[in-house]
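Q: Convert this sequence to structure tokens.
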Amino acid sequence: MSGGGHRLNLSAGLASVSVALVLVALKFWALQETGALSVAASLADSALDLLVSMTGLMAIIYAARPADDDHRFGHTSAEDLAALGQALLLAGVAVYIGYGAMARLFAEVPPPLKNEASGILVMLISIAITLALVLWQRRVVKRTGSKVVAADSLHYVADLIPNIAAVLALAVSSFWAFPQLDSIVAILAAIILLLGAFRIGGKAFDALMDRSASPETMLRLGKIIEAHPGLFGYHDLKTRTAGSTLFVQVHIELDEKQSLRAAHDIGKALKREILQAYPQADVIIHKDLARDTNDT
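A:
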């Protein structure tokens, strides 16, 4: 990854940790003021965000280390390991929140809420801060393709819905004395968290298992290679992802009568074209004779 991309990922990681610290402090105060389970669910999620953001920041720093004798392909898989850990933690918190909300929902006398106005103010501030962070993270992901930043962004996007719902629950409790809505909101928040955990974990697991790039990426790569001048064809196009890096290997078929310099220039130009389409790629091109594509 380029130095600029690493700096962008690092800035997103630092921003995530800072925002999580602020949100944890704000929501802890709001929980003490209101006693709302919807706020407690949002607090638990923000506390988890703080943990995973710190883990993600360390993964970003580690993943940026260059390849060495023990890690010939670099350290970018650290991003996938961190994302998988985030998903497991997210799933555990979702189950815990959902269980607590169900118990409170079916309690004979649900505990009343208090100081709803203070809770609403804190949640609105939290929503504004979260929106600002998500917008920055989305910009970074668009530039770098970092899975850790993308996973972190999903956490905060998932936060927005429970936060808005917590505002609604506090407002309803304040005006209509219906505390059960607080538990309903917490259950919905738990479901959203669980779905997010499966989505994040699935992508990280696929990367760790060296699953091929998406069909869209494979199709685009194939078109780039087919259209490149000087080739008689290609075969054995293979891809995998690790963190934000796309690894590409392909065998190209060249005229057996051309010079080594000409073959080298064609391969170099093709690699440059692939990197223009996928700046985060690591490309290896094997050159074969067009008359005998079985020799590699």
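Residues 215-289 form a domain with the Alpha-Beta Plaits fold (CATH 3.30.70.1350).
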